[in-house]
Amino acid sequence: MLQFVDVQKFYGSFLAVHISSLTIEEGVWWVQGENGSGKTTFLKMIAGLHPFTGRIILNSKFDIKKQRRQFVKQVNYAEAEPLYPSFLTAKDLVELYCETKGGDIRQALELLKQLRVLDAYDKTIRSYSSGMVKKLSLVLAFIGQPKVILLDEPLITIDVSAVNTICNMINDSFKKGVSFIITSHQPLTSEQLAFTGTLLAENRTIHKNR
Amino acid sequence: MPTALFILQTLLVNYFYRIHAGLFMFSFFVLFGLPQLPLVFHYSIITGIVQSQTFLALVMLIWLLYNLKCIAYIVQQLQHKQQSFLFVLNCLSKSRLYLYKLLVHLQVYMPVLLYSIAIIVVAFKKHEYLCAIEVMTFNCIVLSVSPFVYIFALQQKSFTNSPFFIPSLNLRLRKPYFLFPLYFLLANRKQMLLITKTFSLLWLYGFIQLYEPERHDIRPIQLCLLITAASHCAIIYEIRLFEDEYLEFSKNLPLTITDRFFKMIGLYACLLLPEFIFLLKGIHLQFSIRDYPQIIVMPVVLLCMFHVVLLLEATSMDQLIRIVFGITAGCFFIILYNYGFILSLAILALAFVLYKSYYYHYEKQ
Questions:
Q1: What's the pTM value of the predicted model, to 2 decimals?
Q2: Dihedral angle at the C-alpha atoms of B154, B157, B161, B162, nearest 10 degrees?
Q3: How high is the ipTM of this complex?
């Protein structure tokens, strides 16, 4: 599904992440590691938000640097601490994502309903709580026909009932062929999410846990 | 120095001067570098201010705008999420808090204060006591009222019920992605937008009213629009900060680089729409209708260029001002040769190449 070839990420002269070779197959992957080990950097590179050297290829076809549009159309991302302009409404963002990612608004509305934020659909984000913004960002990550969804700490700031809803959303999408790469410090049971495997972020690299 | 004052000094005053270093350098260069005999030049200006009430009123208007800029900046900083810890200062006694805020404002207002002192000295020398009293009163009012605004902001009170509030246009229209920065300006940078547009439109109005060309020549109006474009550089800087902070997610949207570039052109064309409409006042007098496209394209591509410059690594406001000054000076001389659309197209092509090269390589520092 995703191939990494000599991927390096520098912050100034500091080498934060170096992945010489890594292939991640389809499935639900859990990225584990300490704070500052490079988990978010890893996801942001795949999402196209952070520049890096090397190559990241999706399904042996789309190189993020050469076919960026096709790549990001199939790779969605939800940030750990999402930040959106406060004057926008959820409607503005959902419509933008549906238009660009090619999604169905009804599907997004259904997810918002499941997460109990549909009532605030027409309200500006400045009236949202941090949990509501987080839920909105998660819904946006499911819009379109993604092959991979990257979720950075999807379970923080949200209420307990929403945790199960999100796990159900992930499981349902996985059954439809969507893969996930998830970072989470929260303990998750195998009943909630059946992880294919674990990726470890340590020693400035990412590797599979054997 | 008390710790609270030290923190306010570092966060508000030092940062204010660092952010506006370019503006101060530029102003200092224009006011003291360009005149051959700066002291004689300023003495003449101050004499004019002292002896003419209209001139004095104009100068006070400029001071007031500067003061509003200082207030807007500091209030924005005080209400920023990162500065929410300053809420603890509310535990200080009211008099002490007022004193600290007064000291903060005194320092950011210092350039005006120094010039005011010079005016007062000259006014006394020339026995123009009314002028001296007016300048003193003006500054006393400004200095005494401004700290209250900061205290108000520090208490995290809403400005929607205050006299400083500029209402927002709460239109329930669909917001196109390319206009997000414009909505941001209308929602969060109203004072800055108002000051820039007032200056820009007054500048255009003055030019169209006062300049009467002897023959058909579009170069003077093009030169005038160079200043209009340059006056928007602070707004462009804010737009880039906004993009950095709130629109990072948009890099994950499947838009081509060309699409993004055209959206940027659309944004700046909309931003300059008031100027373009206002320019129509000069049709037949300054230029003909067939010159109109050539005239309006130039400032749009310049704004795009200024925007792209900010994608180059770690471009600060200070560096931007210098680059804007350089680009404007360069364009000034090229416009004199009257190359028609070629200059605009060349700037546009260069902006696109830089945008394409740097857009995905840019990273917030």
A1: 0.78
A2: -10
A3: 0.88
